[in-house]
């Protein structure tokens, strides 16, 4: 493995561990989450004024989410087209990597969200709802009515485009960095939309970013390992063929 690849992997693994520790502390403390959310809550009406804001929901929720979905569907179409279109064949691996990474990351976040006992801010009793908050990774000791709010599913639709960075990193580094920046900005905006609506705590969205990132790093390592194994197998095979062709070869 090249030194640059080792540094890249080490930096990502170190970042995941460090971020995981910080995010766990934020999620278990709750102080930062509640402090941010309190700014968008009206204690008089005991509601989040922007929860049902139509322009915010349409542009910040429906439209932004479609960007990620459309990008993923376009890549699927291009991957199929690469079977016949010669100009796309060199991009097939990039397209397939993005499709698999993005699809698995999105599936992971949505699966965890669907099984989560943690409720959204506007469902909590402190904000006019009926559910109760408890620290992340704690045993469920209270009755949970709704849950299904950790991690942030909407934010993940923006962050999932990080898969494009990993897919493009070797073939088109400059484009990879552009995709990374775009994904982080899009995911951050989508996170902010949900926070101001009372639909998620900040930590919910931070964990979406972490889970997408972890999925991409894991698959990146798996792909790199497969390539090394395939390369070694090819070397052994070539050596065997060369030996067989050598004069005086005896099995």
TrEMBL record:
Regions that span the bilayer: 7-26, 56-81, 93-109, 150-168, 175-195, 207-226
Keyword line: Membrane, Transmembrane, Transmembrane helix
Chain ranges of the Phosphatidic acid phosphatase type 2/haloperoxidase domain: 96-221
InterPro entries, per the entry: PAP2/HPO, PAP2/HPO_sf
Protein name listed in UniProt: Phosphoesterase
Species this chain originates from: Oxalicibacterium solurbis
Source taxonomy: Bacteria, Pseudomonadati, Pseudomonadota, Betaproteobacteria, Burkholderiales
